Amino acid sequence: MNRFSYARPDTLTAAIQALAHPGARAIAGGTNLIDLMKYSVEVPSQLVDITHLPFAKIELLPDGGLRVGALVKNTDAAYDARIGESYPLLADAILSGASPQLRNAATTGGNLLQRTRCYYFYDTATPCNKRQPGSGCSAIGGTNRVHAILGTSADCIATHPSDMCVALAALEAVVQVSGPEGDRSILFSDFHRLPGAEPDKDTSLQPGEIITSVDLPAQHFSSNYTYLKLRDRASYAFALVSIAVALEMEGATIKAARIALGGVAHKPWRVPAAEEALAGQTPGSEVFGKAADLMLAGAQGQPGNRFKIALARKAIVRALKQAANGTPQHATDKQIQ
Amino acid sequence: MSASATTGLHTGQPRSRVDGHAKVTGAAKYAAEFTASGLLHGVVVSSPIAKGRITKLDITAAMAVPGVVEVFTHQNRMRTAWRNAKFQDEVAPPGAPFRALYDDKIVYSGQPIALVVAETFELARYVATLVHAEYDIEAPSTDLRAVRGSAYVPSKKRSGINPPPKPRGDAPGVLADSQIRVDAEYYQPAEYHNPMEPHASTVIWEGGGKITVHDKTQGVGNTQAYITNVFGLKKDDVHVVAPYMGGGFGSGLRPQYQLYLTVLATLQLERSVRVVLTRDQMFTFGHRPETIQTVSFSARQDGTVTAIRHEAIAETSTFEDYQEVVVNWTGLTTSCENVELDYKLVQLDRYTPADMRAPGAPTGQFAFESALDEMSYKLGIDPIELRLRNYAETDENQGLPHTSKALRDAYRLGAEKFGWAGRNPQPRSTCEGHELVGWGTATGAWDAQMQKTSASATLTPDGKLTVATASADIGTGTYTILTQLAADALGLSMEAVTTKLGDTDLPFSPLEGGSWTAASAGSAVQAACCKVRSALLGFAQEMPSSPFKDVTLDQVDFKEGRLVLRNNPGIGVAYGDIMQASGLEQIHMEESAARDPAVQKTHASYTHSAVFAEVRVDEELGTVRVTRIVNAICAGRILNPKTARSQIIGGVVFGIGMALHEEALDDSKIGRFMNHNFAEYHIPVNADIQDIEVIFVDEPDDMTSPIGVKGLGEIGICGTAAAIANAVYHATGRRVRDLPITIDKLL
Predict the structure, then answer these.
(1) B499 by DSSP, 3-state: which?
(2) C-alpha to C-alpha distance for B639 and B286, rounded to whole angstroms
(3) CB-based contacts of B649, cutoff 8 Å, min separation 6
(4) Bridge-partner residues for B186, per DSSP?
(5) Which of A81, A209, B158, B161 is deepest in the core (most CB within 10 A)?
């Protein structure tokens, strides 16, 4: 761990100023950043502790949506009555990740900004384009069980590790940010980026910008939804594949569908064509299988993670069944529904 | 003295850990928690490459930081012993033990190349990033499958490890003529011990060349001998104190490199130093070796096994021939006239493997117990019935009868508890919702050993007893069982007894390991207590008008702190009064206990288990849940059913990890295990563990140890992975021969 200075601003303006310091990084829960600093993967010159900023509230929005402050702890979000009732998909996704201890410390904004769990990104003994641009990707041709099968580039096959973000992608949340240039809203699908030739850039956040909240739209999907996560043990492991499904049903027909995949790409993966293919359909294996194929169009595996393509296809079908049947998977279920 | 002498209020009864309070309140001190004034902190710098040479090692930037005391490298370290033998410890395999900072040669990934010592830990950790090294890199060889052709039979046997027995009968001939055969290959990946407490050493500079060493070790004597040999110190100058250990599983048997580095820094700087390895560095030394096994065996239609060939090819390092017993279990648990067992090694550019919980046994048993299961389906014979038809009454490897073997009872009791009789023999016969349900079984076996151990017992007039031996309690419950035995030997409450462990000032004990500690330290403590009993009677006889004048030991009892006549317990005298009458401040006795050498020649001694597993497999998604385990254990006398049960549950959890989760993922291009942390190296979490039931089978054994104990540390893992793999087959009809059984293997 390197030496760094520390600031704890009380206002947003002061925080944005402090983040202008070259090499500055914002810290809230620190559940990922501190780890990465111990590994010398992150070497910030200054830590800007933003926990004194006023973003720890969950508020109703005028349009019926919900504003989740960037500093709301993952646990508080998951157990918030309004989220539990109106956005159970989000609550389930949050509770599928990490451990109670970590969720007690981790924040909403921090969850969006957590970094990949690629073995090589974490290990400074190896080249990694995300950690050290231009050094090469060790995962390609290396150990790649947990890596991406969609949206990869020749420079990076890392995944985004969050569960919460997969649900937020399906719910089409909006990320509110403030920065030196003022405030702006970023659609969730535009927030995380694909690696391309710049895998060191995880998000579209600009230097000095701070997430202030994540806004949930009014549409809840609280009846037909699921978050299904498959991993190498029953709990406390990152997803090999996870699926957030939100369906709007009209009688026995799917009126609208949202599907987001986790553990398979550099960002929560959505395919509008797959969702459109479900609209107006009656739930069934064939329909779901077709949607799964569309979700996975262009998927490419490595020797260590090729199984994810077959696994994801089956898991998407299962998750769609769960959502359509109104039998969502819960984080504490030992058996898959 | 016979085992019956200690039957009393406590031994054999479920008792809570006597060290429980100290552990949950933090009073129990671990190696990294001891301190001294002016303590310095060391941080290890590890090699990113697996093979090659250091061409440049620049410590200038590191040394320039105020607060840095020294950066030790191969270029500036003090001289240590020259001969390899000086680096060999109690359980070292043949070869040249690894020496940290020895020269510029890199022999495995993660090898320590420097030790930064600074005034604070944080500073040392930072400065470790400033050490600049350049390398001449060679291509490492870490792909076992690719180089299995280079396997060789180790030229020198590892002490205490039996090589495979000579072939008996004509296995190749019988196999060639057999119609009913199983031929299969099995794979066990490298696994790491992963105790919660990382390896650490705190070495206190006492002045005048003397040091006190707090080390994470399963044997203070082994640590002391290593230090005196390597650094040329006298025994009196090296006091090793390690009263507690946060889990070992074998990782604390051999002195690890942080010990060498900490002692080196302390001696060179003449200041106290502490070094704690990071979790990642816990993946830079010994591990359960990656092993490939081939099994061929044949049977008659009635289930009689006619011939067995079982070969294991296991990794070792380029500098030592690590060996463990992998294939011998096959010849032990199955009666067969034609048996050929082979065990070979392949050198990889990795650190030498190390004993990890039941080293070799669950590996070999996974292969052969899986193969037996395959045969049971071929023959249409129930897996338990097949095992009973080939039940080995004797140890056919050595041609010796068993001191005791109640395995038949274990099969019966385990099957009853599990409900095995209700099993539909057809694979894929039970489906509940999305899940296929399967039941499987396997046999486990491990050595029942006893090692020569000494102990002391000290009684004071206030009726308090202290028993002591240099052995270790690595979390298993040794403090508790020794307290129980001692309390019963002298008729005291457990509160009146203090047990001391983990200190080289205490009577000698070998390493804690191999499941031998309860039998060894327990027998020694009991023997020492018996000497106190004799002394008490002797002093009592000298008391004026003593009622014990013409009485012998078998005519008295030691009850509630008093010596009493067995025939007339109303007549007695308190220990304090006896000692006062003789003007004694204490009665201090020391005694050793060892296994009867005659028995060792005439009998074989093992623990056994019958493991039953239920799994539920979501076939579509490939997920496996182990919903039920029944483990029926034959391990002689059980001193404390509560701590014993915990031991077995822990072993079963280890077995579940072996079956479903654990695997060090090697990147053979760079010769490095890549999942070197708890996020990516998976061990079971609570959600993976469901019902585990432990049965202790009645198995009287008066030959293995004087107290009837056979040991429990390893047997819980033995056979568990095989039972789970067999249950997965029964559930799905799919035979997974590569561990761990992960989602991708069942898709």
Answers:
(1) strand
(2) 32
(3) B692, B694, B716
(4) B293
(5) A209
Mutation pick from B116, B284, B614, B672 vs chain A, by most beta carbons of A within 10 Å, is: B672
b/e burial code for range B374-412 (CB count within 10 A of at least 16 → b): bbbbebebbbbebbebbebeebbbeeeebbbbbbbbbbb
Cα(A230)–Cα(A243) distance, rounded to whole angstroms? 9
Min Cα separation B709/chain A (Å): 36
Instruction: Give span(s): CATH 3.90.1170.50, chain B.
Output: 34-139+195-248+252-283
CA distance B670 to B665: 12
Residue found by looking up tokens 């069934």 in the block: A284
Q: Tokens 């410890």 label which residue? A: B89
Going across the sheet that includes A241-250, the strands are: A224-230, A241-250, A253-262
**What CATH class is the domain B451-594?**
alpha beta
* The two three-digit tokens of residue B310, written as one number: 């079982």
Which pLDDT value is given to residue B8? 78
Q: What distance in Å separates residue B251's CA from the closest CA in chain A? A: 23
Q: Which of A34, A143, A306 to mutate to test binding with chain B, by most B CBs within 10 Å of its CB? A: A143
Q: Which two tokens stand for residue B13?
A: 């009864």
CATH code at A224-325 = 3.30.390.50
- The per-residue pLDDT for range A234-281, each reduced to its tens digit, is 999 999 999 999 999 999 999 999 999 999 999 999 999 999 999 999
Render pLDDT for B530-559 as a digit per residue (tens, 0 to 9).
999 999 999 999 999 999 999 999 999 999
Q: The whole model's pTM is what?
A: 0.98
* Topology given in CATH for the domain delimited by A5-51: 3.30.43
Tokens representing B98 are 């690894």
Chain-centre distance for alpha carbon A223: 22
Please name the residue that has the structure tokens 């099957």.
B415
**Which of A187, A42, A257 shows the shortest CA–CA distance to B129?**
A42
Region B34-139+195-248+252-283: CATH code:
3.90.1170.50
> CA B710 to CA B699: how far, in whole Å?
10
Q: Is B66 at the interface with chain A, CB within 8 A?
A: no
Spatial separation of the C-alpha atoms in residues B6 and B523, rounded to whole Å: 10
Asked if the Cβ–Cβ distance from B679 to A138 is below 8 Å, we say no
**Cβ A177 vs Cβ A214: under 8 Å:** no
